[in-house]
């Protein structure tokens, strides 16, 4: 079947981080977007940064219905907002993007709504920030976008739901709602609670101890900065699936405590080696950035003078060299006026990039 592209108009209800990012991405592709949010400030900011026009402008055009309505509201109110959108635009397809899927589908099944025009979806991309100011039109590029086709959904509705993800540059994957919730309990909700539990240990600690923090702590606690209002809704709606993983974590933590309470006992070192190698084995199973097989990227570090424009210059030159960046981290060497830009690239590009950068006068550490 030929891929569908959206022609619009598309209405986005909820102009926070995700809704505004969707609006920006679609407008960038030339799809007309109309926005609505109960917060006049969020709506105005989304309009101001170019994510679309107020929905009142669409409604002023009598008889014009959106092709697609995207509900990007918090999970708790998503079913209500979907129900209202289906009634308000009786020919439009309505999708939501909430992080949990079974509870919302079950809520909608309990109401008399036209489920043939509804499809649940979930972009597996976001940030630890919320609100329209944090929005990015390219947020979804190459990230998975789950489409949960259910038995009542029409082919047309499923086609438009997939077109939304594809038009935003995401990789569309199909899961049923229950399978989706099973998956996100492991790959999204467990990481969130582990990160929050870890970061909560840092409260009230001596700042002198924290001054030694390196990337290990930053990597493992980044998402602990996520919005509590959103996450209490997500965790509450998928509690039964998440708690099964936490039983496993509890068992492993109890085992580890037992080992560390007697670290010289026979077998203790073997237990620790096993813990580490089990972690290595799990980590190696995480797919590459584009959903492909696990891929080890090669890292290099470039030292840049702490002056405005240096990082932009470096990135421009890497673009000129023709190497695609897979990941980028910035760090400062404390006490010295030097920044460290850590770059990951495909291993096959590493040596050439190092040579080219050195030739252009950059100081590269490998
Ligand atoms: N934050 C993330 O990284 C991701 C979030 N999601 C899902 O996207 C949805 C939106 O999340 P964010 O954009 O992060 O949150 P956000 O807090 O940035 O934005 C939510 C927006 O919904 C509005 N809103 C509140 N009540 C509403 C209602 N009754 N009707 C319409 N709009 C309402 C708020 O005013 C706000 O502008 C959630 O369902 C979340 O589960 C999905 C993938 C990633
Ligand atoms: O910031 C990150 O790395 C995330 O993974 C964000 C995120 C948050 C909630 C979702 O439902 C999906 C993705």
Automatic annotation (TrEMBL):
GO molecular function: NAD+ binding; prephenate dehydrogenase (NAD+) activity; prephenate dehydrogenase (NADP+) activity
Catalytic activity: prephenate + NAD(+) = 3-(4-hydroxyphenyl)pyruvate + CO2 + NADH
Pfam families found in the cross-reference section: PDH_C, PDH_N
Pathway(s) where this gene product acts: Amino-acid biosynthesis; L-tyrosine biosynthesis; (4-hydroxyphenyl)pyruvate from prephenate (NAD(+) route): step 1/1
GO BP annotation list: tyrosine biosynthetic process
Documented EC number(s): 1.3.1.12
InterPro entries per the UniProt record, alphabetical: 6-PGluconate_DH-like_C_sf (IPR008927), ACT-like_dom_sf (IPR045865), ACT_dom (IPR002912), NAD(P)-bd_dom_sf (IPR036291), PDH_C (IPR046825), PDH_N (IPR046826), Preph/Arog_dehydrog (IPR050812), Prephen_DH (IPR003099)
Keyword set, alphabetical order: Amino-acid biosynthesis, Aromatic amino acid biosynthesis, NAD, Oxidoreductase, Tyrosine biosynthesis
Keyword presence, Mitochondrion: no
Enzyme class: oxidoreductase
Domain Prephenate/arogenate dehydrogenase: 8-294
Entry superkingdom: Bacteria
UniProt domain ACT: residue ranges: 299-366
Family listed: Belongs to the prephenate/arogenate dehydrogenase family.
Name of the protein in question: Prephenate dehydrogenase
Lineage of source species: Bacteria, Bacillati, Actinomycetota, Actinomycetes, Micrococcales
């Amino acid at each position: 079947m030929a891929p569908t592209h959206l022609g619009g108009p598309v209405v986005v209800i909820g102009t926070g981080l995700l809704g505004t990012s969707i609006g920006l991405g679609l407008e960038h592709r030339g799809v007309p977007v109309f926005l609505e949010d109960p917060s006049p400030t969020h709506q105005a900011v989304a309009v101001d940064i170019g994510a679309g026009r107020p929905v009142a402008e669409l409604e002023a055009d009598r008889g014009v219905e959106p092709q697609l309505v995207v509900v990007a509201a918090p999970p708790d109110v998503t079913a209500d907002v979907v129900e209202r959108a289906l009634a308000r635009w009786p020919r439009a397809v309505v999708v939501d993007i909430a992080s949990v899927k079974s509870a919302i589908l079950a809520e909608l099944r309990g109401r008399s709504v036209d489920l043939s025009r509804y499809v649940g979806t979930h972009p597996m991309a976001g940030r630890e920030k919320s609100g329209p100011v944090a929005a990015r039109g390219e947020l979804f590029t190459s990230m998975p976008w789950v489409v949960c086709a259910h038995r009542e959904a029409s082919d047309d509705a499923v086609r438009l739901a997939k077109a939304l993800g594809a038009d935003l540059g995401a990789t569309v994957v199909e899961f049923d709602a229950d399978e989706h919730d099973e998956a996100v309990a492991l790959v999204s909700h467990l990481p969130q609670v582990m990160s929050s539990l870890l970061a909560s240990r840092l409260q009230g600690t001596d700042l002198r101890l924290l001054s030694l923090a390196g990337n290990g702590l930053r990597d493992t606690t980044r998402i602990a900065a996520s919005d509590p209002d959103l996450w209490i809704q997500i965790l509450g709606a998928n509690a039964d699936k998440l708690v099964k993983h936490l039983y496993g974590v509890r068992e492993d933590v109890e085992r580890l405590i037992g080992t560390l309470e007697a670290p010289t006992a026979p077998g203790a070192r073997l237990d620790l080696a096993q813990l580490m190698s089990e972690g290595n084995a799990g980590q190696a199973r995480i797919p590459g950035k584009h959903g492909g097989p696990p891929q080890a990227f090669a890292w290099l570090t470039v030292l840049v003078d702490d002056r405005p424009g240096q990082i932009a210059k470096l990135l421009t030159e890497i673009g000129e060299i023709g190497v695609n960046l897979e990941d980028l981290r910035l760090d400062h060497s404390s006490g010295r006026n030097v920044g460290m830009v850590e770059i990951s690239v495909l291993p096959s590009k590493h040596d050439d990039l190092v040579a080219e950068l050195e030739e252009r006068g950059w100081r590269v550490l490998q």
